[in-house]
Amino acid sequence: MMDEIRAERTEQAEILASLGEEQWNAPSLCAGWTVKHVIAHTTLPYRVKTAKVVLETLKSGGRFNHASDRMARRDAAALSTGELVDVLLANAGNPWTPPGGGQAGALSHDVIHGLDITVALGIDRRVPLERVKIVLDGVTPRTLRYFRADLAHVRLEATDLDWTFGEGEPLRGPAQDLLLLVCGRRPPRESLS
């Protein structure tokens, strides 16, 4: 699993290093966040001690998403794009995992936010299927609630790997586009049938 995490972070750093300032400031698929906000968020665990994140969450009344938004905006304003890429690359093998998520959770975090950037920018990057499969295998009804993804009465069927989820009317498409749907994002419309 660490090999997949390291590869995902390294590949993302290479893409990010090639972006222009306009692309860094472009909207991502994360509502209200630019590409730079997303990378400030994904690199937070490598730059800030857990105790500080807990304190910031307490300042936000225990709402992690509120604290995360505030920290991403603050850090995106304070750090250069080069600094953010350097932090990501230097921590490609960092063992950080989200609370209760383990290594699969860390990979999920990286893959999903990577898609938030590449899809929004129109970069034709296909995440290796073995990585997408690991992330999709962790999808539960709780995942859908967390992301507020309304997929009631829908059966998701990947066309490029052996994965299905849910019951109801089939919705087929590439695995990474279904992952976007599960995470409450909008995949390229032409990719689903």
Structural class: mainly alpha
Q: Report the sheet-strand fraction.
A: 5-15%
Given the C-alpha coordinates, what overall shape results? globular
Count, helices: 11
Distance between the ends:
31 Å
Gyration radius over CA? 16 Å
The biggest beta sheet is recorded as: 3 strands, mixed
Count the beta strands.
3
Helix content: 55-70%
Order of helices and strands: HHHHHHHHHHEEEH
User: Uncertain segments of ≥5 residues (pLDDT<50)?
Assistant: none
Name the strands of the widest sheet in spatial order.
2-1-3
Mean pLDDT: 94
Query: What is the count of structural domains?
Result: 2
Q: What is the topological layout?
A:
Blueprint: H1 2-17, H2 21-24, H3 35-42, H4 44-47, H5 50-59, H6 64-78, H7 81-90, H8 102-121, H9 129-137, H10 141-147, E1 154-158, E2 164-165, E3 169-173, H11 175-182
Parallel strand pairs: 1-3
Antiparallel strand pairs: 1-2
Helix pairs in contact: 1-7, 1-8, 3-6, 3-7, 3-8, 5-6, 8-9
